[in-house]
Amino acid sequence: MPVPHRSDPADAPVGTIPADGHAPVPLVNIANVLTVLRIVLVPVFLVALFVDSGHDTTWRIVAAAVFAAAAVTDRFDGQLARKHGLVTDFGKLADPIADKALIGAALIGLSALGDLTWWVTGLIAARELGITALRFFVLRHGVIPASRGGKLKTLVQSAAIFLYLLPLPSSWEPYLLALIWVAVALTLITGADYVVQAIGLRRRPRHGEAQVAAPEGSTGAGSTGAGDPATRDDDVAQR
């Protein structure tokens, strides 16, 4: 008499059902917990940043530490999701939201305190919102894969923000300006690259039409969570 398998999908908490037919991925897993933690840390970071109008040295260091901790979770949640098969629809949605919320909150906070010019914040925010809208616009034609340039852009942005948060002496100002200019340049270059890729996608057959002839059970693009570029944010390639 057959013995029921202990990982029967009907008995497991539903997150995302993998294309290989294995048990569903539980919604509550370490990768998603880290993503939610990053979102929760955003208001904590802002509170620390605005203590005494941003002039308290100790609290500026605390704000920088909270920002760094949140940025580190951005590195590990995607790795854990892909390595251990923990990719979920929630993670694919929440991860880029968490990333942009953290960077956006930091830039707006620094500009509100007068530490960073508003045009830098506005330019980066416009790029992030524009690329996000563009990705949704071309989604029916295909997906724009993550790029190394996008990852480098996020890394440089995070490094610049972290240094701006620290109560550094005025002698650091030239180095901070140089770093933020590099971040702005990467923001524009990677943004232009994604526009070019989006135009190319619109000229190709639709994503679904390209896979009509794929054999049943195929794990080609779009059929799995961990390896599909659709599960990745344009900058951090987390999910």
TrEMBL record:
Keywords: Lipid biosynthesis, Lipid metabolism, Membrane, Phospholipid biosynthesis, Phospholipid metabolism, Transferase, Transmembrane, Transmembrane helix. Its main location: membrane. Gene3D superfamilies: 1.20.120.1760. The chain crosses the membrane at residues 30-51, 175-196. Residues 208-239 are annotated as: Disordered. One of its GO terms (biological process) is glycerophospholipid biosynthetic process. It is found in: Membrane. InterPro entries: CDP-alcohol_PTase-I (IPR050324), CDP-OH_P_trans (IPR000462), CDP-OH_PTrfase_TM_dom (IPR043130), CDP_ALCOHOL_P_TRANSF_CS (IPR048254), Phosphatidylglycerol_P_synth (IPR004570). GO terms for molecular function: CDP-diacylglycerol-glycerol-3-phosphate 3-phosphatidyltransferase activity. Residues 230-239 have a biased composition (Basic and acidic residues). It is an enzyme of class 2 (transferase). GO terms for cellular component: membrane. It is a multi-pass membrane protein. The keyword Transferase applies. Its EC number is 2.7.8.5. Pathway: Lipid metabolism; phospholipid metabolism. Belongs to the CDP-alcohol phosphatidyltransferase class-I family. This is CDP-diacylglycerol--glycerol-3-phosphate 3-phosphatidyltransferase. It comes from Speluncibacter jeojiensis. The lineage of its organism: Bacteria, Bacillati, Actinomycetota, Actinomycetes, Mycobacteriales.
